[in-house]
Design a protein that fits this description.
- The chain is of the alpha/beta class.
- The chain is 41% helix and 15% strand.
- The chain has helices spanning 24-37, 51-60, 81-95, 115-127, 141-150, 169-177, 193-196, 198-207, 211-221, 233-240, 249-256, and strands at 3-5, 11-13, 17-18, 41-43, 69-74, 100-105, 131-137, 157-161, 181-185, 225-226.
- Strands 3-4-5-6-7-8-9-10 form an eight-stranded parallel beta sheet. A two-stranded antiparallel ribbon has the order 1-2.
- Helix 3 links the parallel strand 5 and strand 6 (100-105).
- Helix 1 (24-37) runs parallel beside helix 2 (51-60), helix 1 crosses helix 10 and helix 8 (198-207) packs across helix 9.
- The longest helix has 15 residues, at 81-95.
- The relative contact order is 0.14.
């Protein structure tokens, strides 16, 4: 497992396990399988409604808590300073934990203009030692610029939709300049067209690997943190085995050229659902 060092010195596994769209009654088994395979970073959120299942897997695991890296997020309807502090307590209770490693703002929801005071609540949680690091999800450059201007703690990461058809190069460059890691959600394009792309298929065949492993390897070699999701044990294991091969610079360039700036999810500046 590769570890990356975040801007506050905290070390984080570069490959994690995501549980978006995993039902609560499936989450415990899926996370238990992931931990058994070797994953140590688990990414959940209040709105996924599976924090209890994730917490159950953590409680039943033989892996010590301090060897696990747990991320959760404050949802849009809980934004605001006091609301965020309350939402954090509720997430901790569902997870059965006394701290999380990273707490994130799920979306900026610019229409409601509360992400600054929400982030200040995250700063309080960080200064109080209740989280080891704080960050954001789905923040565009304009949101990050305002955050950096009006808040004190630089986010350790920005979790965004990112895959070969949505490379996010400009946003990646901005984050890199400010020592903010990019973490990719839907790193495999939700198992969509990217995995069927003839370039990906060709490279996978040349390495005797699956298309998913090639795409995950592309992310890792681009210094991106990835959190693929699956409830299928064989795929959970397949996604983990991406550290024993390497793409050539030509192969990386071939994949880089696939970018279409095509999103599966909503644009962050327009996503104002609460």
């Amino acid at each position: 497992m590769n570890l990356v060092t975040l801007n506050n010195g905290l070390k984080m596994p570069q490959l994690g396990f995501g549980v978006w769209q995993v039902a609560d009654d499936q989450a415990a088994q899926a996370v238990a399988t992931a931990i058994k395979v070797g994953y140590r970073s688990i990414d959940t959120a209040m709105i996924y409604k599976n924090e209890k299942g994730v917490g159950q897997a953590i409680a039943e695991s033989s892996v010590p808590r301090n060897e696990l890296f747990i991320t959760t997020k404050v949802w849009n309807s809980d934004q605001g300073f006091e609301n965020t502090l309350r939402a954090f307590d509720e997430s901790l209770e569902r997870l059965g934990l006394d701290y999380v490693d990273i707490y994130l703002i799920h979306w900026p929801t610019p229409q409601f203009d509360q992400y600054i005071e929400t982030y200040k609540a995250l700063e309080k949680l960080y200064h109080d030692g209740r989280v080891k690091a704080i960050g954001v999800c789905n923040f565009e450059i304009e949101h990050l610029e305002r955050l950096l201007k009006e808040c004190e703690v630089v986010p350790v990461l920005n979790q965004i939709e990112c895959h070969p058809y949505l490379a996010q190069n400009e946003l990646k460059d901005f984050c890199s300049k400010h020592n903010i890691f990019v973490e990719a959600w839907s790193p495999l394009d939700q198992g969509g067209e990217v995995l069927q792309d003839e370039v990906i298929q060709k490279i996978a065949m040349s390495h005797s690997r699956t298309p998913a492993q090639v795409v995950l390897r592309w992310h890792l070699q681009n210094n991106t943190i990835v959190i693929p999701k699956s409830v299928t044990p064989s795929r959970i294991e397949e996604n983990y085995h991406v550290f024993d091969f390497e793409l050539t610079s030509n192969e990386m360039n071939e994949i880089n050229q696939l970018n279409r700036n095509r999103r599966k999810g909503p644009h962050p500046s327009e996503m104002n659902v609460r």
